[in-house]
Design brief:
Layout: E1 2-7, H1 15-25, E2 30-34, H2 37-43, E3 46-48, H3 75-87, E4 92-97, H4 99-114, E5 120-125, H5 141-161, E6 168-173, H6 180-184, E7 198-200, H7 208-222, E8 225-230, H8 255-267, E9 271-275, H9 279-282, H10 289-307, E10 313-315, E11 318-319, E12 327-328, E13 331-333, H11 357-363
Parallel strand pairs: 1-2, 1-4, 4-5, 5-10, 6-8, 6-9, 7-8
Antiparallel strand pairs: 2-3, 10-13, 11-12
Helix pairs in contact: 1-10, 3-4
Protein name: Phosphofructokinase domain-containing protein
Family: Belongs to the phosphofructokinase type A (PFKA) family.
Domain Phosphofructokinase: 3-305
């Protein structure tokens, strides 16, 4: 059986661990590497790959050994991709990615079926946004969250030292449509005195008056206001292309700076907007070992499912009941996952970081 492994979307700190797991489980079978994301899929940029080709160091670094990318895929693109798969006699395809990737993989399988071409498809979960349906959490998220739990408290302590000059600091995380990373940035178990005073999520509609009142209250109570905001929490304030097809336009961030300008103009105090940017998804040095282990395992499981011809699924990742942290990897139909977004559940949709103890307990075992 000849297999193809690729990645679409953006890298994470542990995505190469999923590749390593896949290649390890597929040892002894022909495997082709898809290079360059969806563009490479359409163009047929496939090259033979073995576990020995991927440096061990790559599994502990950010970036993507396979390359990555995004593309709004058309029916013609799907046909071109299937023609490429035919030329290379590929029997099974695994793609590493999030909900857009799973939509692409599902569409590829459906188009193959419509053409009467047998094709086994298995998705490998990967996204720092944690917005993939069918998993308790997605590989990649825990490492980005761990980065935030290490960096943001230090930013809060730095802010406390400089509050006389800079009373308001607003720190912006990734998250165009979901607030999972902003929630992680509220972590303060090790230093409650420097917890954020306010968190803004895309799931909670932004209210300018309430925002300014909360900042003013924090200033009156604490002498400073430290705010965490998801990049998509107030989409009306910037021109960022949050709803571009398949996320094919670059987001530059900046809502934190817009909000800082609003605070300065309305409250008359100095305010700084910090955009943390791509370091959240690329900091391999701060990756979670739990995340790396789970990323490796979902890669292994995907290869085994392909070799068993059990396709049309995403490798699930589910917490098992019990007092200690444990996960299972039951497959989830791609049809139930493709193109869907897993938002923050209702019980964690709050602007008050002090109300997130349950979320922090959920997050803690992922941080490694």
């Amino acid at each position: 059986m000849r297999l193809l492994i690729g990645q679409t979307g953006a890298p994470t700190a542990v995505v190469n661990a999923s590749l390593h797991g896949f290649l390890s489980a597929a040892a002894g079978h022909e495997v082709l590497a898809l290079r360059g994301g969806p563009d490479g899929l359409v163009a047929g940029a496939f090259t033979p790959v073995t576990p020995a080709d991927v440096p061990a160091a790559a599994t502990r670094r950010g970036g993507s050994w396979l390359g990555a990318g995004r593309r709004a895929v058309t029916v013609d693109d799907l046909d071109a991709a299937l023609d490429s798969l035919d030329r290379h006699e590929v029997d099974g395809v695994s793609l590493i990615g999030g909900n857009g990737t799973m939509a692409l993989l599902h569409a590829l399988g459906e188009r193959a079926a419509a053409r009467g071409r047998p094709l086994v498809t298995v998705g490998i979960p990967k996204t720092v946004d944690n917005d993939l349906v069918g998993v308790d959490h997605s590989p990649g998220y825990a490492s980005a969250a761990r980065y935030l739990t290490r960096v943001v408290p230090d930013l809060a302590r730095d802010h406390a030292a400089m509050a006389g000059v800079e009373p308001v600091r607003i720190v912006e995380t990734l998250g165009r449509s979901v607030g999972w990373l902003a929630l992680a940035a509220t972590w303060h178990a090790d230093d409650p005195a420097h917890a954020p005073h306010l968190v803004l999520l895309p799931e909670v509609p932004f209210d300018r008056t309430v925002f300014l009142d909360r900042v003013a209250d924090a200033l009156a109570t604490h002498g400073r206001a430290f705010v965490v905001v998801s990049e998509g929490a107030a989409p009306g304030l910037t021109d960022e292309p949050f709803h571009a097809g398949n996320h094919t336009r670059i987001l530059l961030g900046g809502v934190s700076r817009v909000l800082a300008g609003t605070v300065g103009a309305e409250l008359g105090v100095a305010a700084r907007g910090e955009v943390l940017g791509m370091t959240q998804r690329s900091a391999g040095a701060l990756a979670s070992e739990v995340d790396r282990r789970e990323a490796t395992e979902v890669g292994r499981r995907a290869a085994r499912l392909l070799l068993d011809r059990a396709g049309g699924v995403l490798v699930g990742l589910h917490r098992r009941p019990g007092d200690s942290y444990d996960v299972g990897y039951d497959p989830v139909p791609l049809a139930d996952v493709a193109g869907r977004t897993r938002t923050v559940p209702e019980q964690w949709r709050t602007t008050h970081p002090t109300e997130l103890d349950d979320f922090h307990r959920w997050l803690e075992p992922l941080l490694g």
